[in-house]
Amino acid sequence: MIVTDSEQSAAKICADWRAEGLSIGFVPTMGALHRGHESLVELASSSSDRVVVSIFVNPSQFGPSEDLDSYPRTLEEDCNKVRELGASLVFAPKADAVYSSGFSTGVSVSNVSDGLCGAFRRGHFDGVTTVCAVLFGIVRPDRAVFGMKDAQQVAVIKRMVSDLRLGIEIIAAPIVRESDGLALSSRNQYLSFEERQQASTISTALRNASDLALSGEKSCKVIKNAFLVALEHSDLLRVQYVETVDPDTMIGVETTEKRVLLAVAVFAGKTRLIDNILIESEV
Ligand code: PAF
Known about the structure:
Blueprint: E1 2-4, H1 7-19, E2 24-29, H2 35-47, E3 50-55, H3 75-84, E4 89-91, H4 95-98, H5 116-120, H6 124-139, E5 143-147, H7 151-163, E6 169-173, H8 193-214, H9 220-231, E7 237-245, E8 260-268, E9 271-279
Parallel strand pairs: 1-4, 2-3, 2-5, 3-4, 5-6
Antiparallel strand pairs: 7-8, 8-9
The chain binds pantoate.
């Protein structure tokens, strides 16, 4: 496995693979890799001849009061993990190389980026789509894999790739969870013991709310309320949003008659956690 911070080297290696007729699967990450990321690498490697993993804590997707400086950076461990999973290239550029002087372009996907996390993290998705467009331009993958924990990110990237005709297949990988249901996240390591214990309520509450829908409840208002009620006794948890949306457009929906994504953001202490569940009621 090759590790490089050089954009020229990464682009050349990928171009050589393409010239040999090899397909490229790409997993963009910000590092601090956990089993969730590992599942993305496995998925990429099952569908492609070569797997490229980028590790880049992208400054442009963090707000001024967010955790850019404290975000965990564990490059060596990350490389060891993906090497074992058969990745061929790790591209870990420096921030000033990605946003070189004179960088003036922003990619912004409207509508699908506006609600949910987009409403609370202004500019976040512009940072994500801009860096993904840059990384896609360097790697030029056949397919790229993203985790469904960030369901809105998946929808935004799909929209960008479709609108800009980038010709990249976007694969959405299922959420990987701890044994008590907590969705894996690089930010889980910020949680205190008590916050970590209460955080498992989020996935239990999502599942119970989804079961309510599957047993016939059609009103999204009732389903969202069931989620809120389930968290009422967890004094360290604070719900930022609970929304029911169309999973492709992220537009709010009122009934569960079609596929509905129940998506939430919850603070456990100071740590912001997101999670979601897809509800596919029979009609
Ligand atoms: O999901 C992430 O880790 C980041 O948003 C991504 C896609 C690597 C862009 O920086």
